[in-house]
Amino acid sequence: MKKYMAASLMVLAVAQAYAAPAPDTLAKVLASKELRVCSPGDYKPFSFDNQGRFEGIDNDLVTRLAKSMDAKVVIVKSSWPTLIADFKSKCDLGVGGISITLPRQQQALMSEPYFTNGKTPLVRCEDVSKYQTVEQINRPDVRIIANPGGSNENFARTALLKAKLTMHPENITIFDELVAKRADVFVTEAAEAMVKTHEYKGVLCGVNPDKPLRPSQNAWLIKDNDFRFKAYVDQFLRLEKLSGRLEETIRRWLPN
């Protein structure tokens, strides 16, 4: 009898979970006139906290998305280790150069991709020829560095197991570790490697950003089961592409 009741309660719990109403972010934003957006704000050219003002490709796009709903953007600063949890509890959308990964899609929906990216080594310019391939980097004598909580750490821990890994607490000053020669390679996304090649001209160089070690795509986090809002966001991004405004925004923030 106890086993029967336990099984019945389990079935009931599962049924209730599936019967729970899906979120309706679109209705919420239209009513509140606010679009709450989580972002780590440390990833140029997508989203960067410039003394309290968030700017970049994603911030330009979400401002226009909010305008389409007659709403204003409210930025909630997050971090890569806490991004999913913060997004689930505090935000309507998660942005900031987020790579589409299967673990992330187990916890949330993701918009259709708006940018094609990929894992690219960032090194001192004199070392570009030394670190062209995974095999050249994945060696015990190579000091790699990564920031916690995102796909950069995942790549370091899964594809570069033989290299000597140092974790750096955040993504703002990690590049100075390369300059100071305390690390040899930081494998990040092609877009960020291009930005830092421009900012640290002649000092740091991205290695073949047009041919990344592992291609990826960037998208936005959307609440699980909120297919209505996903359809709205996806259509917004399609219209941005068709109008040419997406490409204009990318060119504004991504150096040639």
From TrEMBL:
**Stored Pfam families:** SBP_bac_3
Which source organism does the UniProt entry give?
Answer: Bergeriella denitrificans (Neisseria denitrificans)
Per the record, the domain of life is: Bacteria
Stored InterPro entries: Solute-binding_3/MltF_N
SMART domains from the xrefs? PBPb
Which residue numbers delimit the Solute-binding protein family 3/N-terminal domain?
A: 34-256
Could you tell me what this protein is called? ABC transporter periplasmic histidine-binding protein
Q: Where is the signal peptide?
A: 1-19
List keywords of the entry alphabetically.
Answer: Signal
